[in-house]
Automatic annotation (TrEMBL), chain A:
Gene Ontology molecular function, alphabetical: cullin family protein binding; ubiquitin conjugating enzyme binding; ubiquitin-like protein binding
A GO cellular component annotation in the UniProt record: ubiquitin ligase complex
Function summary: Neddylation of cullins play an essential role in the regulation of SCF-type complexes activity.
Position of the signal peptide: none
Gene3D superfamilies reported in the protein's UniProt record: Cullin, PONY binding domain (1.10.238.200), DNA helicase RuvA subunit, C-terminal domain (1.10.8.10), EF-hand (1.10.238.10)
Biological process, per Gene Ontology: protein neddylation
Keywords of the record: Ubl conjugation pathway
CDD domains according to UniProt: UBA_DCNL
InterPro entries in the record: DCN-prot (IPR014764), DCN1-like_PONY (IPR042460), PONY_dom (IPR005176), UBA-like_sf (IPR009060)
Every DCUN1 domain range: 54-242
Organism whose genome encodes this protein: Brassica carinata (Ethiopian mustard)
Protein name: Defective in cullin neddylation protein
Superkingdom of the source species: Eukaryota
Automatic annotation (TrEMBL), chain B:
Keywords: Ubl conjugation
UniProt-recorded name of the protein: Cullin family profile domain-containing protein
Lineage start: Eukaryota, Viridiplantae, Streptophyta, Embryophyta, Tracheophyta
Gene3D superfamilies hit by this protein: Cullin Repeats (1.20.1310.10), Cullin, Chain C, Domain 2 (3.30.230.130), Winged helix-like DNA-binding domain superfamily/Winged helix DNA-binding domain (1.10.10.10)
Signal peptide extent: none
InterPro entries: Cullin, Cullin-like_AB, Cullin_CS, Cullin_homology, Cullin_homology_sf, Cullin_N, Cullin_neddylation_domain, Cullin_repeat-like_dom_sf
GO annotation terms (biological process): ubiquitin-dependent protein catabolic process
Alphabetized Pfam families for the sequence: Cullin (PF00888), Cullin_AB (PF26557), Cullin_Nedd8 (PF10557)
Length: 249, 737
C-alpha cells in the first residue's frame, strides 16, 4: 500500500465512515475521482454492490427483528423499534429519507423487498452502520435535485392506500416537516390559508406544483404570472396573500 | 408650279417675312376669321417646299428650321410678352388669354407654311416638332415671366367665387390651359406653378370657415354647409380646373371640414349625433353617412357615437326595470324584453336606411346590445327574462291576441335577441322547463305551429343540438296522442269506470321531475294504472314507466246538495277528495296516513280545498292555515253558479331559478371537459394560455366560460390522467393517450 498524504488519509477515513465501504473500495473510489470526496461518493454508489452471503444473513436477522409476527412486513410497531434502535424520533424527517431509499409504497409499512433494497442501496447491513449513515441521509435533503425527488416521493408515500389525494392534515404536517429543511418564507401562510379556505384533500398536481412555486416565485410575488398554468389553489393563495396584505400588489 | 431656278436663302426669307407680317397684322385686327389670302399662302408654302427639296448646297432645311424657331421666339418675346406685362389683375388674365389664342393661331398658320419640314426633315433628324418648338418658346418667353402673377390673380378670383361672386369661368379655363400646355406633355407646370398654391389657399380658406361654422352652426347646419362646399368644389373642377385636381381638392375639403372637427361635430350637445338619433332626424343622419362614407375610417366615429347612444338607451331600460324591481314591482321586468325588442327594431331601421346597411353599423348595433343584454334584473339573468317572455307570448296565442304574421315577426325578433345573449345555454334550460309546463298543463291552449316555428328558427341559428330536446318534447306529445288512441281502442271497458288519458314522456328530453309512486291511489285509479301498464307492455320492449301523479289532472263530479258540479283538479286533490267518498270526516293525520303524501304536498292540497276560493271541505278550526290537528269535513252545501270549476293549486315553492343554474353549471362542466380533451387530443402538446383561449373560443357559441372553471377542469383532468404537465415546462400540457 503506497503512502497516502495526510489529507488523503483523512479523506479515506471520512469516506469509510460515511459509506461504510471497505478500505479497498474506498481507495478505489477516491482514486477514480481524483480524491474529490463528493465525486467519490457518486462513483461508489453507482457501482453495483456485491452481495456477500454474510450480508444477506445479517439483513435477514435485522428484518426478523422488526417484522410483524402475523405478516411478512414491518409495520408500525416494528418501525417504532427501528427508530429507537437508531435513536431517532419516529417523526424525524430522516425516516422519510430512509423510506425514499427503500422506495416504500406507503408510510408506516416496509415490505421485505423494500427493507432489503433500501439498506443495500445505502450499503449497510447493521444498525450501527445505518446509524452512521444518518448524517449522510440528512445531508441529502440539502441537495436540490434529491430534495425534489424526496418531496415528490413524499406525496405517494404519505397518502392513504387506494386514495388519489392526500388528506389536508397530513399534507400540512408533511409541508411543515419538509420546509423546515429547505426554507420557504411563505410556508406558514400557505398552511393557514389551506385550513381557512380549502378543507379538502390535496391533489398530486397541486403538491408537485407547490414546490415549483416555492422554488421559482419569490416571496414578494414579483415574478408571479397570473396568466400562467399554476393550479387553481395556488392562484387563490396568491389572492389570499394580497387580501391579507402579506404582499403588496 | 415647277421652278427651274434655285431659291436663295435670303430671298426666300424675305418672302417669308412678308407673309409673317401679314399674319401678324391680320391677328391684330381680330376680325372674326383669320384668313390668309390663298395665293399668298400657296406661294409661301411652295417657297419653303422648294427651298427644302433643292439639291445640296441649296438644301436650306436646317436653316429654315432655325428660321421658324426665330420667328416664333420673336413673336413671343416682342409681341406677346410686352402686351401681357402691361396689364394687372383680371386684365392681365384677359390679355394673356387673348394673346395665347393669337399665338395658337399664329403657330397653326406657320406650321402650315413650314409643313414640308414636318414631313421628312424633322422626323429624319428626330428634332422636336414645329408645335413643340412653338410651345417651348411660349413657355420660356411668356409663361415663365407671367405665371406667378397670373396664378395669384386666378386664385384670388376663385376665392371671390367661393364667397358667392360670379366670375368668368371660360377665362379661367383658358388661362389654366396655358399652365397645362406649358408642361410640354407632363402636368408638372400646372401642378407646381398653380395647383400647389390653390390647394394651400383652399386649405386655409376652409380652415377659417370651419372654425367659424363649428362655433355658430348646429350639427345639421354645418353638415349642409359642408355638403354644399364639396358640391361647389367639384363643380369648379368641371368648369375650369384640370380633372386631376378633383381628388386632391375633395380630400382637403373633407379633411378640414369633416375629419379634423369630427369629434366636436358629432358630440355637439344639442344637435350632435345623439341628439339626431333622439329626435329621429333621419335626413340629417343620412347626410352624415353620405359625408363620412368616402373618407377612409371616416365612419368609425359615427358608428361609435351610434353604438354609445344605443347602449345608453338599452342601459336606461335595464335600469328602469331594476329600479322598479327594487321597489317591489316586477311588472317592469316582464315588459322589459318587449321593450328591448322594440328598441332593436327601431335602430335596425336606422342601420338599414340612414346607414345603408353598412357592416360597421351592424357591428355597432350588435356590440351595443351585447353590452346591456347581459345584465341582470332583480336576480334574473336576461336569458331567463327572454324565456319568460316567450312563455307569456305563447300562452297569449291561444286568445288570438296576435295575428300570425305578428307572431312570426316577434319570434324572429326573439331569436335575433338571443344572439346577443352570451349565456345561451341558460336560456335553453329555462325555455325547456316552461315549454314542458305549457305542453303538459295547457295543451289545449298550445298552438303547435307557433311552438314549432320558434324551435325551427332557434335550430337554424344555434344548431340542431341546441334544440334537440325541445323537438323531442313536442314530438312526444304527438306520439302520446296517437298512443292514447291505440290504448282507448284496445279497451273493452273503462278501467275503474274512469276515462283515462296517459301521456308518456321520454325521460331524456323532459326536465327531471320527482316521481310519486308511493302515493296510495284509490282502487279505481289503480285499475287505470294497471290497465295502461299492461297495454304499454304489449307495445314496447323493456321500458320502465315512472308515474308522475303530481302532474296529472282529474275531472271529478262533486255530488253537492244544491247541484252536482264538475271539479277540475290535480290528481293529488282528487285523491284527497276521494277519501271522503267513504267517510264524512277525516283528521289530518288520518289523511296523511292513508295517502302517504308528503307533508308539504298535503298542506298545499288541503289549503286549496278548504281555505281558498272554493270551500269544498270544511275545516275545524276554520283558520287560514293547516295544522296537523285539523279535522276536515265534506262540505255538502257547497255550490256555485257555474257547472264546472277549476280548483287551482299553487305550485310547490321550488326555487326553479336555482335548479336551472345548478343544472346548467353541471352541463357546462361536462362541456368544458369534453372541449379540453378534444383540443388536446388533436394538438397533443399545448401551452396553458393557448389551451384556455381555444377552449373559450370553441365554447363561446353556447356560453362564456369562466377562466377559473376551465383551470379547475384542467386540474381535474390531470388527476384523472387525461393530461399531464410537461416535465420540463410546467406551463405546457401533454395529452395522455
Amino acid at each position: 500500500m503506497h503512502k497516502l498524504s495526510r489529507s488523503n488519509r483523512d479523506k479515506l477515513q471520512q469516506f469509510v465512515a460515511i459509506t461504510g465501504a471497505s478500505d479497498k473500495n474506498a481507495l478505489q473510489a477516491l482514486k477514480a475521482s481524483d480524491w474529490q470526496l463528493e465525486a467519490a461518493f457518486d462513483v461508489f454508489y453507482s457501482q453495483p454492490q456485491p452481495r456477500s452471503n454474510g450480508d444477506m444473513r445479517r439483513l435477514e436477522e435485522l428484518y426478523n427483528r422488526y417484522k410483524d409476527p402475523y405478516s411478512d412486513m414491518i409495520l408500525a410497531e416494528g418501525i417504532s423499534v427501528l427508530c429507537s434502535d437508531l435513536q431517532v424520533e419516529p417523526q424525524d424527517i430522516v425516516t422519510l429519507v430512509l423510506s425514499w431509499h427503500m422506495n416504500a409504497a406507503t408510510a408506516c409499512e416496509f415490505s421485505k423487498e423494500e427493507f432489503f433494497g433500501g439498506l443495500q442501496a445505502l450499503g449497510v447491513d447493521s444498525i450501527g452502520k445505518l446509524q452512521e449513515k444518518l448524517s449522510f441521509m440528512r445531508s441529502e435533503l440539502k441537495d436540490e435535485q434529491k430534495f425534489h425527488e424526496i418531496y415528490n416521493f413524499a406525496f405517494g408515500w404519505a397518502k392513504e392506500k387506494g386514495q388519489k389525494s392526500l388528506a389536508l392534515d397530513t399534507a400540512i404536517g408533511m409541508w411543515q416537516l419538509l420546509f423546515a429543511e429547505r426554507e420557504w418564507p411563505l410556508v406558514n401562510h400557505w398552511c393557514d390559508f389551506l385550513q381557512d379556505h380549502h378543507n379538502k384533500a390535496i391533489s398530486k398536481d397541486t403538491w408537485a406544483q407547490l414546490l415549483e412555486f416555492a422554488r421559482t416565485v419569490d416571496p414578494a410575488l414579483s415574478n408571479y404570472d397570473a396568466e400562467g398554468a399554476w393550479p387553481y389553489l395556488i392562484d387563490e393563495f396568491v389572492e389570499y396573500l394580497y387580501d391579507k396584505s402579506v404582499v403588496e400588489k | 408650279m415647277y421652278r427651274a431656278t434655285i431659291i436663295d436663302f435670303e430671298q426666300g426669307c424675305k418672302c417669308l417675312e412678308a407673309g409673317v407680317s401679314e399674319l401678324k397684322r391680320i391677328l391684330e385686327e381680330e376680325t372674326s376669321e383669320t384668313r390668309i389670302d390663298p395665293k399668298q399662302y400657296l406661294e409661301l408654302y411652295t417657297t419653303i417646299y422648294n427651298m427644302c427639296i433643292q439639291k445640296h448646297p441649296h438644301d436650306h432645311s436646317q436653316r429654315l428650321y432655325n428660321k421658324y424657331h426665330d420667328i416664333v421666339e420673336h413673336y413671343a418675346k416682342k409681341t406677346v410678352l410686352p402686351c401681357v406685362q402691361q396689364k394687372h389683375d383680371e386684365y392681365l388674365l384677359r390679355e394673356l388669354s387673348r394673346r395665347w389664342d393669337h399665338y395658337k393661331v399664329f403657330v397653326k398658320w406657320l406650321s402650315h407654311f413650314f409643313n414640308y419640314l414636318e414631313r421628312f426633315f424633322i422626323p429624319q433628324r428626330n428634332y422636336p416638332s414645329l408645335l413643340e418648338v412653338a410651345m417651348k418658346s411660349f413657355r420660356n418667353r411668356v409663361y415663365l415671366e407671367v405665371q406667378v402673377n397670373a396664378k395669384d390673380v386666378v386664385i384670388a378670383l376663385i376665392d371671390k367665387e367661393r364667397e358667392g361672386a360670379q366670375i368668368d369661368m371660360e377665362l379661367l379655363k383658358n388661362v389654366l390651359d396655358i399652365f397645362v400646355q406649358s408642361g410640354m406633355g407632363t402636368i408638372e407646370r400646372y401642378k407646381e406653378d398653380f395647383e400647389m398654391f390653390l390647394l394651400e389657399e383652399t386649405e386655409s380658406y376652409y380652415a377659417r370657415k370651419a372654425s367659424r361654422w363649428i362655433q355658430e352652426c348646429s350639427c345639421p347646419e354645418y353638415m349642409i354647409k359642408s355638403e354644399e362646399s364639396l358640391k361647389k368644389e367639384k363643380e369648379r373642377v368641371t368648369h375650369y380646373l384640370h380633372s386631376s385636381t378633383e381628388s386632391k381638392l375633395v380630400e382637403i375639403v373633407q379633411d378640414i371640414l369633416l375629419v379634423s372637427v369630427a369629434k366636436h361635430l358629432l358630440e355637439k350637445e344639442h344637435s350632435g349625433c345623439s341628439a339626431l338619433l333622439r329626435d329621429d332626424k333621419t335626413d340629417d343622419l343620412s347626410r352624415m353617412y353620405r359625408l363620412y362614407h368616402p373618407i377612409p375610417k371616416g365612419l368609425e366615429p359615427v358608428a361609435d357615437a351610434f353604438r354609445i347612444y344605443v347602449a345608453r338607451e338599452g342601459n336606461a331600460l335595464i335600469k328602469q326595470a331594476q329600479d322598479a324591481a327594487a321597489n317591489g314591482s316586477l311588472v317592469e321586468a316582464q315588459v322589459l324584453v318587449g321593450k328591448i325588442i322594440d328598441l332593436h327594431e327601431k335602430y335596425m331601421v336606422y342601420v338599414m336606411d340612414c346607414f345603408k346597411n353598412h357592416t360597421l353599423f351592424h357591428k355597432a348595433l350588435k356590440e351595443a346590445f351585447e353590452v346591456f343584454c347581459n345584465k341582470k334584473v332583480a336576480g334574473s339573468s336576461s336569458a331567463e327574462l327572454v324565456a319568460n317572455f316567450c312563455d307569456s307570448l305563447f300562452k297569449k296565442s291561444g286568445n288570438d291576441k296576435l295575428s300570425d304574421e305578428a307572431m312570426e315577426a316577434t319570434i324572429d325578433n326573439v331569436v335575433k335577441l338571443l344572439d346577443y345573449i352570451s349565456d345561451k345555454d341558460i336560456f335553453s334550460e329555462f325555455y325547456r322547463k316552461k315549454l314542458a309546463r305549457r305542453l303538459l298543463f295547457d295543451h289545449h291552449k298550445v298552438n303547435k305551429e307557433h311552438e314549432t316555428s320558434m324551435i325551427t328558427k332557434l335550430k337554424r341559428q344555434q344548431g340542431g343540438q341546441y334544440t334537440s330536446k325541445m323537438e323531442g318534447m313536442v314530438t312526444d306529445m304527438q306520439l302520446a296522442k296517437e298512443f292514447q288512441k291505440g290504448f282507448k281502442g284496445s279497451l273493452t271497458a273503462k278501467p275503474g269506470g274512469i276515462d283515462l288519458a296517459v301521456t308518456v314522456l321520454n325521460t331524456g328530453f323532459w326536465p327531471s321531475y320527482k316521481t310519486s309512486t308511493d302515493l296510495n291511489l284509490p282502487r279505481e285509479m289503480v285499475e287505470c294504472v294497471e290497465a295502461f301498464k299492461s297495454y304499454y307492455g304489449t307495445k314496447t320492449n323493456q321500458r320502465k314507466l315512472r308515474w308522475l301523479y303530481s302532474h296529472g289532472t282529474c275531472h271529478v263530479i262533486g255530488s253537492f246538495d244544491p247541484k252536482p258540479i264538475e271539479l277540475v283538479l290535480s290528481t293529488y286533490q282528487a285523491v284527497v277528495l276521494c277519501l271522503f267518498n267513504n267517510t264524512e270526516r277525516l283528521t289530518y293525520q288520518e289523511i296523511i296516513e292513508q295517502l302517504n303524501l308528503s307533508h308539504e304536498d298535503l298542506v298545499r292540497v288541503l289549503l286549496s280545498l278548504s281555505c281558498a276560493k272554493y270551500r269544498i271541505l270544511n275545516k275545524e278550526p276554520a283558520s287560514k292555515s293547516i295544522s296537523t290537528t285539523d279535522v276536515f269535513e265534506f262540505n255538502s252545501k257547497f255550490t256555485s253558479t257555474m257547472r264546472r270549476i277549476k280548483v287551482s293549486i299553487p305550485p310547490p315553492p321550488i326555487d326553479e331559478r336555482k335548479k336551472v343554474v345548478e343544472d346548467v353549471d353541471q352541463d357546462r362542466r361536462y362541456a368544458i371537459d369534453a372541449c379540453i380533451v378534444r383540443i388536446m387530443k388533436s394538438r397533443k402538446v399545448l401551452p396553458h394560455q393557448q389551451l384556455v383561449s381555444q377552449c373559450v373560443e370553441q365554447l363561446s357559441r353556447m356560453f362564456k366560460p369562466d377562466i377559473k372553471m376551465i383551470k379547475k377542469r384542467i386540474e381535474d383532468l390531470i388527476t384523472r390522467d387525461y393530461l399531464k404537465r410537461d416535465a420540463k415546462n410546467h406551463h405546457i400540457f401533454n395529452y395522455v393517450a
